[in-house]
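User: I'm writing a short report section on ligand binding and want a predicted complex to refer to. Could you take this sequence and guanosine-5'-triphosphate and write out the structure as C-alpha cells? A short remark afterwards would be nice.
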Amino acid sequence: MIAAKQAKRIRFNPIRGRKSQNFMRRENYLRKELYERIASDPAIFDFIQRGSLDGLWYWDVENPEQEWMNSRFWELLGYDPREKKHLASEWQDLIHPDDLKKSLENFQKHLDDPNHPYDQIVRYRHKSGRTIWVRCRGIAIRDENGKPIRMLGAHNDLTEMKELEAQLRQMADTDQMTDMPNRRAFNTHFEWAFKNQKRTAEPLSLAIIDIDHFKHINDIYGHQIGDKTLLAVSSAIRNSCRDNDFAARWGGEEFIVLLHSTDQAPAIMIAERIKASIAEIDTVPEKLTASIGVTTITQPAMDTGMQLLDLMVAEADRALYFAKSSGRDRVVHAAPLQAA
Ligand SMILES: Nc1nc2c(ncn2[C@@H]2O[C@H](COP(=O)(O)OP(=O)(O)OP(=O)(O)O)[C@@H](O)[C@H]2O)c(=O)[nH]1
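Assistant: Sure. The C-alpha cells for the complex follow:
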C-alpha cells in the first residue's frame, strides 16, 4: 500500500530531480538495512560469500603466519577444510612458485601504497595434481595511522575459462585432418626459433615436403583414400623427425619441418629419411614419392622472424621446384642447388 502511494507520488512529480532523489533515498535505506543485517547476522554474510565467491581469506598482517581461509577455498582444491589449521604456509605450499613470488611482491606494494591493486591470476595445485586457476584480490585494512593490520581477500575460480581458452588455442593451432600443427602454429614456433638462433648462433634448416602427383592419387583412388594417405604422410614425417624438430602441415599436400641446430648435411639426411618413410606408405597400391626442398642458414641478417621465414621458404621452394623439374622423388638442398 505504501509502495503504491510512493509510486503514485513519483509518477506525478513533474520535477525529474525529485524522482531521482526519492530513488536515492530508497536505495540508501535498503543498502543501510542490508549492511546492518550483514553486521548483525553471520548467516547473511555466509549466504553472500557462498553465492559470489570461491574463496575468502582474512590475513593477520602483524602476525603473518595466521590466516583464515574459508571452507569453500579448500574444497575447490580438493581438501577437507577440517584438516586445515588456518596458516599462511598451507596455501603457500600449494600455489605455483612463480605466482607466489608475484603475489608476495604485489602484497608488499599494496601495503606500501593503497593505490597499488592486489589483484592477480594465480595457479594452485589441486589435491589430484590438476591446475586450478584463481583470480585473487585483496585489500589491506589499516589502523587510524594508516598502518596495515589485516588483509581481506577474495578468490574466484577461473579454471573452466582457462581450460576452454587453452582448448580454443590448441584448435586454432592444429590441422583438423592430420592433427598436426598448422601454418599459424608453425609461424609462432618460428618466431621463437628465430630468437633462439640469434642467441645460440646455431645453424637452422628448413625442409618443404611435397607429395608427387597427388592429384593423380585423388583422381584414381578417390578423395577418402587421398585423405588417408595424407594422414599416413603426417605420421611418416613425425616418426622420421627428432623430438625437437617441428613439423607442420603447410597446406594441401605440402608439409614443412624446422630442424633446430642442424647444418646442411644432417638436414639432407633427415629429409632422405622422411622420403624413405613416405615410400613405405601402403594406402595406395603404388609407390608414394615425395620431392623435398631443403635450406640452411647459419648467420641470418634479418631483423624479424617473419623476414627470415619468408627467405627460408623462398629458398626451400626454389630447391623443391628444382626437385620437381628434375624428375621428382628426390631431396634437393638450396645451396648449392643440386640433387642430394
Ligand atoms: N584428398 C585430399 N586432397 C588434397 C587435400 N589438399 C590438397 N589436395 C589435393 O592435392 C592435389 C595437389 O595437386 P597439384 O598441386 O597439382 O600437385 P600434384 O598432383 O601433387 O603434382 P606435383 O606436385 O607436381 O607432383 C590437388 O588435387 C588437391 O586437391 C586434402 O586435404 N585431401
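A remark for your report: Residues 177, 210-216, 218, 223, 226-227, 230, 252-253, 324, 328 surround guanosine-5'-triphosphate (CB under 6 Å). Residues 1-17 have pLDDT under 50 and may be disordered.
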